[in-house]
Amino acid sequence: MRIRLLTPAAAAALMACTSLGLHLNAQAQDWPTKPVVLVVPYSAGGPTDVVARMLAIPMGKSLGQTVVVENTVGAGGTIAPARVARAKNDGYTILIHHMGMATAPSLYKKLPYDPLKDFEYIGQVLDVPMTLLSRKDFPANNFQELLAYVKANQEKVSLANAGIGAVSQLCGMLFAYQAGVKLTTVPYKGAGPAMNDLMGGQVDLLCDQTTQTAPVIKDGNRVKVFGVTTPQRLTAMPQIPTLDEQGLKGFDVKVWHGMYAPKGTPAEVINKINTALNVALKDPVVVQRIADLSSELVTPDRATPQSLKTLLESEVKRWNTVIKAAGVTAE
């Protein structure tokens, strides 16, 4: 049997690769040794920001390091994913994003990242229903009156959203599309400013997540609510009918959230973040606060990398069909 000896250069290269592999493995085992940045694509106080800050504390306790929430706002929520996609793949910069990860490829002609190729998946987080609201002195008092009014006065009715690409824009777009009307859309820099102007009477309508709208609805006299966007009524607010049961058949918008890391982040690090996420999803304070916002944390079988990957792939296809049918694009 012939034994082939490595040349000095080949041996040195092999030793270097082995040393690098051992070094990276040791780093993954020691991770984290400093705070982890959780990037949010939207403004402070908005729905996604609220969820991120709820999860950050129990995740930090589980990891043994602070999880710092940073709001990276702009371009319809596309700047934050682009930032994370370019970040060092060491697990210290991660992303929480809603279904905007699935809609961006159809909304934007030039996207500075690929949602399906530029990230590692950590897991799904929660589902958030949405509600259709109006200013408190809007002429309509129920959904049928709302439909009649917007059809007769569509050129006068303003529809607020939290910015191009935000889920409030998509929900409002679907409402107008299925109602057969074209309304004046008013984009804001975040859900908070949009809600403030709705309550102040500066705009007429807003469709947004219950993390943002539930406290206002429960307050009783600051807005009017015309329906929820899921096929079933909300357990926390069963008195509010769905848009589907009131005539917009098949209307179903539920805002799912997921966590991502840059492509190439070590599997050991992803597993540690996923474990911390699952700990946070069971935290009693988080569970209660999410329930108060009429939202639903995912079950453990959905808080996995594979589950989020499968969901994102299917949602990219779904929203591509919807957005093309509505003829909506963003620069």
From TrEMBL:
UniProt KW Signal keyword: yes
Signal peptide range: 1-28
Coiled-coil ranges (or none): none
Classification via Pfam families: TctC
Membrane-spanning segments: none
Keyword Magnesium carried by entry: no
Xref: Gene3D superfamilies: Bordetella uptake gene, domain 1, Periplasmic binding protein-like II
Record keywords, A-Z: Signal
Similarity annotation: Belongs to the UPF0065 (bug) family.
PANTHER family registered for this protein in UniProt: BLR1237 PROTEIN, TRICARBOXYLATE-BINDING PROTEIN
Protein's recorded name: Tripartite tricarboxylate transporter substrate binding protein BugD
Species, as recorded: Comamonas piscis
Lineage, broadest ranks: Bacteria, Pseudomonadati, Pseudomonadota, Betaproteobacteria, Burkholderiales
